[in-house]
Design brief:
41-stranded mixed sheet, mainly beta, elongated
Amino acid sequence: MTTPYYVDALLFPGQPHWAKSSDGITRIKYSFRPSSDEKFNFDQREAVRRIVKLYENIAKIDFIEVPDDQNPQIRFGIADRGENEGADASGTPGSYVDIWLNNNPKAMVDGFSKPTEGNYAFMTLMHEIGHALGLKHTGDYNANGGGTPGPYLYGQEDSLQYTIMSYNGATLSDGTIAGTNYQGSGIFALTPQLYDVAAIQYLYGPNNNFNTGDTLYLFSSSKAFLGTIWDNGGVDTINASTLSLAAKIDLNTGSDHFSSIGPFSDSFLFNRAFDNVAIVDGVVIENAYGGSGNDTIIGNGAENYLSANNGNDSLKGGDNNDTLEGGSGDDFLNGGEGNDLLIEGNGNNLIIGGNGFDTLKESGNADFTAFYDHIEKKTFSGVTKDSYSLFDIEHLIIEGGVSENTLNGGSFGWGSVELYGGENDDTLTGGLLGGDILNGGDGNDTLIEGGDTSYFLDDAHLIKGNFTDSLFSIEKAKLTGGGKDNSIDASHFSGSVYLLGNAGNDFLYGGKSDDDLDGGNGNDQIFGGAGNDDLFGGLGDDLLNGGTNTDTVSESGDVSFFLLNGITLIGNGTDSLVSIEKLKLTGGNSGHTLNVSSFTGTASLFGNAGNDILYGGLGADFLSGGADYDIIRQEATSFDINFILKNNQLITKGVGKFGLLYTVTDTLFSIEGAQLIGNSSNNSIDASAFTQGGVLLNGKQGNDTLLGGQKDDTLIGGTGNDSINGGAGIDTILEGGFDFTLKDGSLLGNGTDILNSIEKANLTGNGGNNFLNAIEFTGSVTLDGGFGIDTLYGAAGDDILIGGRSAEDDAILGNGGNDLVYGGDFQSTTFTGNDALNGGAGNDTLFGGDGNDFLIGDTNDDQLFGGFDNDTLFGNDGNDTLMGEDGLDNLYGGDGIDSLSGGNGIDYIEGNIGDDLLFGDDGDDILHGGDNNDKLNGGNGNDQLFGDTGNDTLMGVQVSVGSNFGKDEIDILIGGQGQDSFVFGSSGNLFFYNDGNLLSQGTTDYARIIDFGLDDRIVLAGSKELYTLSAVPTSIGNSGGRASDTGIYLNMPGTSELIGVIQDVSLSTSDLQSTSFFSFVG
């Protein structure tokens, strides 16, 4: 076998050494010279004893201390050995050797009187004993000047880093370094170094009985170290956990794998050492612990445990199955070869499993979410970290803490996962591939899984597709399907489940406890099984089977819901209900109807926003309207049903099967109104305690008792003799189909009703000739005669009177109040009738409708609308508004300041007494202002305007958007008595009767003033320079051509335009200067 070169460099030629005994152990006797001038002191002797023990530890050597007269083989003494050496060894190994410490002051080594580990004197003795055992210098540098035989070591290897027999790398007391090959430590070697051990063991054999147990190599932050580790078995550990300096721990052996651990020296504790620890070849150190610095830890071929501790550390496993544990910093963990366990600490780490089947383990009181390439960790202080970057991890273990943790491996796709919940109520989600172990631990723990696959769940297993997870201590589960048709079966699971089908036509089977089952979109079949289950059909046509116990169907959406026959729910689809004891329906933000009136169980209805209508069922329901104006509706379903309505309750009392009495109470919240409807029995409907809004009470058949609420209510007695009390507010009685006579305390029609606190009425006839009489009612009414020849008498208040919807002739009297009167169908133009409408007292509104109607506003300020056909309208007293509308109408304003408009057709309009405004509108109309100062506007057509008495204003044309006002019109203007104004233009330079034709005089469109007097005035647009007064053209026919007439011409670039004729008055253009006859508007 070839001797290693570094061993050859340490052995003398011929390799002299001490002989072995028969048992393979080399026994060497040594002594200390006894004479006082040669004698070692106590500390020097103790140092020798510790040093020889170091050699015994590494090799099969037994040093025996003997008295100096017992023939020792090595003797230690002090002498003056000159100025060139601190110590020397003379003699031949294997024969006899003297080791001297030089006491010459000029050569005395540091620590001469007290050699201790790490000082020069201690290493010098260790060096000289090495000579005594057969080791030479590794370079040609004997202290006494003599040569050292080769071979030698060179470069970095010729230093104290590798061997104590080198002169290079010794830091002296003055800070200088003997040699420059190694400066990684500020102390001297504490042990024989790496090559020394190899050479000694080559000569004497290794001591395989040293450190055979579990040895701890503990490094200190306050004590420097430079040395080599020799170990023989056990599970051994290098521990640098007390260090704050960055450490490099390499568990591999030999000259290529030095470690850097601890301070540079005892005096420089904040500077780190480099390459100061070696491990002898063949030694196996299994474990390593870093400190709080940024450490590097490298494993070997054994099964290593490498712990990062604090700091930003780098850990790399070796070729075996290793365990690497990160610390609190940002660490890099690389498992290397083998099936490794990597334990992450706290930090943003990079985790590489390497080759083999590698496992990542995380634990802590936090929420964890695993992805393909990293793990997200969220602590309960709200700190979120993407704490892992993952590569080559085939297995994942996550352990929770004492809080409610979420452990989610759902996006981990490299292999199986193990999740352990801990002490509280935790949530666990397995990985993508399955084959997981999910252990909830203490507390009520929940399993969550989702994917487009089918699931089967029991207490010990979850089968998802082709994979099976093992379950322990799982009390709840949440399983979610995908877009396909999924089957999710939890019927063998003892805990509660939430199952969501999502899209697709899914089959959901609940477990043995109380479950939530949601089909999502699609046509789903949902079976609750045992327990009190909540079923959500979602969109689509679903089968909802609650199974045993008390089960609930819950639906929501911005739609209306209707339950038919107690088993078919229409809303998000058409759902079939089986074994359902409760309903919970929620509307959206629009106004909807939620109707479960056929449901025999209990229902909870939530309207949400919008104006909603809520129909409760036959049980004790909870009805919540939500925002906006919401009402409840309830109809009597069996005999003798009575209702009592309060703000937060609807109490239903009735007679059920076998004549048994029953009471059902619905709870109300945010309800602003109600509709309560009786049946053929004698119902009592009492809303007197309801203050949130108006109610509608309908007794239907029978002799009913109706009590309204505190707001504005509508009450319908129906047939029979009813007692109706509106209560507070403005209340309305609503009836129809008969002749009615309404008084303040009674209504005779479809029975004889007794009325109290009724302020309004709405009465409708039928297809016959109805008589609706409210003349003795002091409130307001709406009377609708319907078809037939009807007679309507309004009440004392403000009424709406509608004659009917047929071609018959109705008679309507508004009576007192401000009435709105329609002679015909105010909703249709299909029928006609010649109606007689009388508004009576008050400010009335009358609508004639179809037919030749006769409308009288009577007293006060009325509005009359003739409608179609030829109508006659009398405003009578008050400031009235009369609108003839279509047909040939006659309008008479009567007393007061009236506004009259003929509308379409040839109308006769008379203002009568008062300062009236008359407007002919379309057609050739005749307008008479009557008494007082009136304003007349003929509108379109050839009109005749008579101002009559008073100072009147007459304008023949209708001014609207455009130009050519009065084109093709010839209007006759007769002012009558008084100072009248005849208007031929208006502000904005609007010129009347200008047809725009520059080639003619415009003799087909002009206005003729019949009775212009000295007190009258003509109003023109613009200025006097625009006009000329001259003779009238003969072409205007019989109406003109007389010499006494004067024509008013608008000057034009071609032929001047005739716009007016002043009959029997002769004027010239100079008369335009007279402000007595003319005025101009700009």
